[in-house]
Write a structure and sequence with these properties.
The complex is a heterodimer of chains A (about 325) and B (about 350). Chain A is mainly β and about 325 residues long. Helix content of chain A is about 10%, strand content about 40%. Classes of the chains: A mainly beta (about 325), B alpha/beta (about 350). Chain A: Pfam families: OB_ChsH2_C (PF01796), zf-ChsH2 (PF12172).
């Protein structure tokens, strides 16, 4: 047993969280996004007579269901703006642009989007703008590529909203919203110590200074006592299967023949069991009490699986508290 | 709307926070949280097993760790099973839940904590994922961009200008110099535009941190704390979610929450406002009718340190700590969540009259 030394250096690794959210649309959203595909902007009229663009399914003031659709203009007026000198990934334009809220002609509320302008000096609240449509449109807010300044002498912003039945061929009923976030993962002190030891083919847990339980893998705190684990304790390498299950369904991206056994393994000296796959024995011969040892992965950084040691099975009393 | 008077005396009796830092690569979340948990327990002399209810606030998206709050629970001593809850937002809302729990009489003490590690990811981009997924999120409008749209609306309406915003930044960071936990102590140049009209100085620092408070009811609060910060009222309200529907220059939800919390019954001497951007302090001060007699953000506020998900709880904690040490008799604490002050919570805290 050694006192927990500070790790040689904090470990870090890239972590990408990526997920496509598939979302269904209500009737109003469906009509609006389908309309964008057809270069038509629809709003929803509230009981009070206001035209909401972008439209929502329910009145934000009264919560009444909104179903009356109107067509509004593709030109409008900037109600506020902000100059974005360094566009970020995913934003509508790759060159510097203005974020704008635009009240389209015939609408009473404003839509957020980007404005393509040469610089902040070309943008002001009150600026007249029009939609620049994306070349390829699928029924999404990005069917509007951006807004662009629109200054014409015969400009008539007074055009009123026109009734619209919201009917289009092949309506869009859902969207897929891809999201990707990039992180740099760092595991903290306890797990850094654990991972460093694993790289040397040693499994090192940490002991609670209060209740003396040895946690493997350590997470930095004893969940019973709520204090930091302090002492490093090498456990194993051998251990005992405390319980197990037989996996019959192949997991995606996992190159292991089914059925196989996934087990809780109490390494000798550990205060709780960790998870591991059992190999080197037919799946239907694995049993509680089976003595196992780690088989290290090719790069030797972690146990690939555990295999029988050939020792007699452990007595139930030796692991019954670790189930 | 008339104030809603709480049915039970409940007070904040202890507050602790970490030193807020740009990065904490050496610490897991539970390793960051544990010291502040131990700090509030030490202040009150309570043991973890004495706590009647535990509630935390955090977001897995910040550090990209699924169910990170369950890992953080290890630091509480959650086994054998405790009475516990979690909110996926700022810890100020965890405090609200704990307060309600104490008002029901189901518990007499509560531990509330929250934490945020913004350093592993890009918080400007992460926060886009909380937006309307149909009309906003696909455009990735980041948190500074949305605040900048609000700031420009304020400038256009004549409510502020760049020098006034710079003065808020300077006052906040100067006050943060007296706060040993602050990430940006001391005034500094406003810098370049991040998203015009907001400059670096108008934006909060990005960093990691944690905070905890303990609530106690009635005479127990008096036993645990020399001068409890009594919660006289607390309420939270939300704006319509579509930005283009709102008047970005006003915050009716803050005003309504303040009315319900009883903030307008008598003047407060201190206000801890959760305004991550200078321009948002302008909105809040107007909505709350704060005049120059009120000391705003003596802690330095979110411009001094902004551990996302803990910043609002820290406002409640800082206001309470000021009452604890006799620097305030009646304080308003505010917390916000979402873009452009989307949701707002207001609490009114008071100390007992001094002899």
């Amino acid at each position: 047993m050694t006192a927990a030394a500070p790790p040689p250096e904090a470990l870090r690794a890239p972590l990408v969280v990526e997920f496509p959210f598939t979302r269904s649309l209500g009737p109003v959203q469906s009509a609006f996004l389908t309309g964008l595909r057809e270069r038509t902007v629809l709003g929803a009229r509230t009981e009070a007579g206001e035209v909401l663009v972008p439209p929502v399914e329910y009145d934000p003031v009264t919560a009444a269901e909104l179903r009356e659709l109107v067509e509004v203009g593709v030109t409008g007026t900037v109600t506020t703006w902000a100059w974005n000198p360094e566009p970020r990934r995913g934003q509508p334009l790759a060159t510097p642009f203005a974020w704008v809220l635009v009240r389209l002609d015939g609408a009473d509320t404003a839509l957020l989007h980007a404005l393509d302008a040469p610089g902040p000096e070309a943008v002001r609240t009150g600026l007249r703008v029009r939609i620049r449509w994306a070349a390829e449109r699928s029924g999404a807010i990005t069917d509007i590529a951006c807004f662009e300044p629109y200054e014409y002498e015969n400009d008539d912003p007074a055009t009123g909203p026109q009734p619209h039945d919201g009917e289009f061929g092949n309506p869009v009923t859902g969207i897929v919203a891809p999201a990707r976030l990039d992180y740099t993962y760092s595991p903290g002190r306890a797990q850094t110590r654990y991972l460093h030891a694993l790289a040397g083919r040693r499994t090192v847990g940490e002991r609670c200074p209060s209740c003396a339980k040895v946690y493997v893998p350590p997470r930095g705190a004893c969940p019973t006592c709520g204090v930091a684990t302090t002492d490093q304790v090498e456990v194993g390498p051998r251990g005992t299967v405390t319980t197990y299950c037989i996996v019959n369904i192949k997991a995606k991206n996992l190159d292991i023949e089914v059925p196989y056994v996934y087990a809780h393994i109490a390494l000798d000296g550990a205060g709780l069991a960790l998870h591991g796959r059992i190999g080197g024995i037919p799946y239907d011969e694995v049993r509680m009490g089976l003595r196992v040892e780690p088989v290290w992965s090719e790069d030797g950084r972690y146990p690939d699986h555990y295999r029988p040691t050939g020792e007699p099975d452990a007595d139930y009393d030796t692991y019954k508290e670790l189930l | 709307m008339t104030p809603h008077r709480p049915a039970r005396e409940v007070a904040i009796v202890a507050f602790a926070q970490s030193d807020h830092r740009r990065r904490t690569d050496d610490l897991s979340e539970v390793e960051m949280v544990m010291p502040v948990l131990h700090d509030v327990l030490r202040q009150t002399g309570l043991k973890a097993s004495d706590i009647g209810f535990t509630c935390s606030g955090s977001s897995d998206y910040l550090a990209g760790r699924a169910f990170s709050f369950t890992m953080a629970l290890d630091g509480v001593g959650a086994w054998p099973p405790i009475s516990e809850s979690h909110v996926e937002t700022d810890g100020a809302w965890a405090l609200y839940e704990a307060w309600v729990k104490l008002l029901t009489g189901e518990a007499d003490t509560a531990l509330v904590y929250s934490y945020g590690k913004s350093s592993p990811g890009s918080v400007r981009d992460v926060l886009t994922r909380q937006l309307d997924p149909y009309y906003l999120a696909p455009l990735w409008p980041d948190s500074v961009a949305l605040a900048a749209l609000q700031a420009q609306a304020l400038v256009d309406a004549g409510h502020t200008d760049e020098p006034a915003l710079a003065a808020i930044a300077e006052r906040s960071r100067s006050d943060a110099a007296a706060n040993p936990h602050a990430q940006l102590p001391g005034a500094r140049p406003q810098g370049e535009y991040v998203v015009q009209p907001l400059r670096t100085g108008d934006c909060p620092p990005i960093g990691d941190g944690a905070a905890a408070v303990i609530l106690a009811a009635g005479d127990l609060a008096r036993e645990l704390c020399e001068r409890p910060a009594w919660i006289r009222g607390m309420d939270h309200r939300i704006e319509a979610h579509s930005l283009g529907v709102r008047d970005l220059t006003d915050s009716p939800s803050t005003r309504l929450a303040a009315e319900r919390a009883g903030a307008f019954e008598r003047p407060v001497d201190t206000a801890e406002l959760h305004a991550p951007f200078t321009s948002q302090e302008v909105v809040l001060a107007k909505a709350l009718g704060l005049d120059e007699s009120v000391r705003v953000n003596p802690s330095g506020g979110a411009l001094g340190a902004n551990p996302v998900m803990a910043t609002g709880l820290i406002r409640l904690g800082e206001a309470a700590a000021r009452i604890h040490r006799g620097a305030s008799d009646r304080a308003l604490a505010h917390a916000t969540s979402g873009p452009c002050l989307q949701q707002n919570l207001v609490a009114v805290l008071e100390g007992d009259p001094r002899a």
